[in-house]
Amino acid sequence: MIKKLRIFKALDLFGVPYKTKISLQEQEQKSILGGLITAILYGVSFTYFIYVVIQWQTGNILPGTSSMSKAQTFSNYTFNKGELIEFCYWRYSPLLLDPFDPSNILLLPIGYKIQNGVQSDPVNLISVSNQTSRYKSLLISPENFTIQQNVNALITPEQPPDIQFAIILRSCDQSFLIKGQKCGSQEDIDKFWTSAANYISFWFKLRQFNILTKEIDVIEKQIYFPINNFSNTNGQILFKPVNLKVDDGILFQNKYSENFLTEIEIVTGQTSMDFLSTILGYNTYLSFFLKPNPIINDNKVTYPKLAQILAEVGSISSTLLMIRVVIILINEHILEERILKRIIRMQYPFLQFNKENQDIKNRLKAQAKQKLIITQIIHDIIKIQSFLEHRFGKSALQSVSNSRFSDSESSVMVRITPHKTVRYKSIG
What is the pLDDT of residues 218-275, one digit of tens each? Predict the structure, then answer.
């Protein structure tokens, strides 16, 4: 059983070699300079570790990101008031008339849901608006509308429909108004078209992922569109979706996903005012059609994990510790000088070194270096063995090798024969 367990002894990764000692207190040559630099290096490494951890926790270490565009056959988005689009008249002068003033409507904004190319009943967009824009004009915010893209809607009737949302500007029509609203006079209409250059300001509220706060930020994109009384500004507005996947786990994966609209693509042109009259039954000044883009961005965001942070700190620390090579060389030089000095002192205990006998010291150091070579050590051991054989004989040496050694405080007693005892002075 014990023999079978010895295999675990062979697998032990924590075995330690035996180290001979330089002195009773030292196994390795160390210096004050080496200790000072070691403290500095470990202090710098630990400080950098704390710095990186703080940067990591505060989100200042950027995550890994990837993005890929692909086509999608279906997407659906529903918006409440002010979530996607708002618009108003750019009233850059207080003398200008607001065409959307409920008590004096000059231009009437109409909303349509167009499902598989078929329009629904129109919605008066002024009826759901009661806010004032930054230009001191009425801010119009369509609410509770859906845009839906399905490329297979017309191929398979059972499929969900393709839905666009249209925003139309037309002349005021009393039949569309609700209580409290009134069409403007022809005099005010003429004054509106002739007194200034007229623009409609649109705000598109897009979304972007904030990698620092890990939240979805709303980005407003403002675009001005000109209008006049002799042409129609016609356009298609495509909203590009993003399918975002985030992994913000510290040790293990922690994934979640978000889907939102992040970009717009606008295609505009000028047409005659009666361009849509065959479809809508009236002339238009501006007409926009909103729908999702069939191209979607598939984005992935992966935040650094603890293992990556430790690897970064470890690489920097390893680079800093390369300076240890210099300290090792210094310690090796100190150790060599220390040993050479001991060897010389052992052979010439009364020799005093000064500037006058520096050449002698250098020659003795060269000789001492030769004695530290392994072949020279073996050669000296053989000479000692030959001397002992000649002095005491082989039988005496054989008895010594088989005898027991007894230690004392300052000497080792080796019994050579029953009548002879040799005392060797310990060196240390």
Answer: 999 999 999 999 899 999 999 999 999 999 888 888 899 999 999 999 999 888 888 8
User: Can you spell out the DSSP letters for 366-421?
Assistant: HHHHHHTSHHHHHHHHHHHHHHHHHHH-HHHHHHHHHSPPEE-SSEEEEEEETTEE
- Four-residue CA torsion sign, 275, 279, 283, 285: negative
pTM of the predicted protein model: 0.67
Question: CA 133, 136, 140: angle at the middle one, nearest 5?
Answer: 35
Distance CA 162, CA 116 (A): 5
Q: Which residues are within 8 A (CB) of 272 and not within 5 positions of it... i.e. 6 or more apart?
A: 231, 232
Asked if 61 and 139 touch (Cβ cutoff 8 Å), the reply is: no
How many Cβ atoms sit within 10 Å of the Cβ of residue 91?
Answer: 22
Residues with Cβ < 8 Å from 199, sequence gap 6 or more? 89, 90, 224, 225, 226, 227
| Beta-ladder partners of 205 | 220
Going by C-alpha positions, the residue among 249, 241, 169, 167 that lies closest to residue 208 is: 241
The C-alpha atoms of residue 89 and residue 102 are separated, in whole angstroms, by 13
The H or E element spanning position 428 is none
Q: How far is CA 344 from CA 28, 244, 367, 426, in A?
A: 21, 76, 9, 17
CB atoms within 10 A of CB 165: 22
C-alpha distances in Å from residue 208, one per residue of 11, 205, 219, 240, 249: 54, 10, 7, 12, 21
Among the listed residues 346, 349, 354, 398, the one whose alpha carbon sits nearest the alpha carbon of residue 372 = 346
- The residues, any chain, with a CB within 8 Å of residue 22's CB and separated by 6 or more, are 28, 29, 335, 338
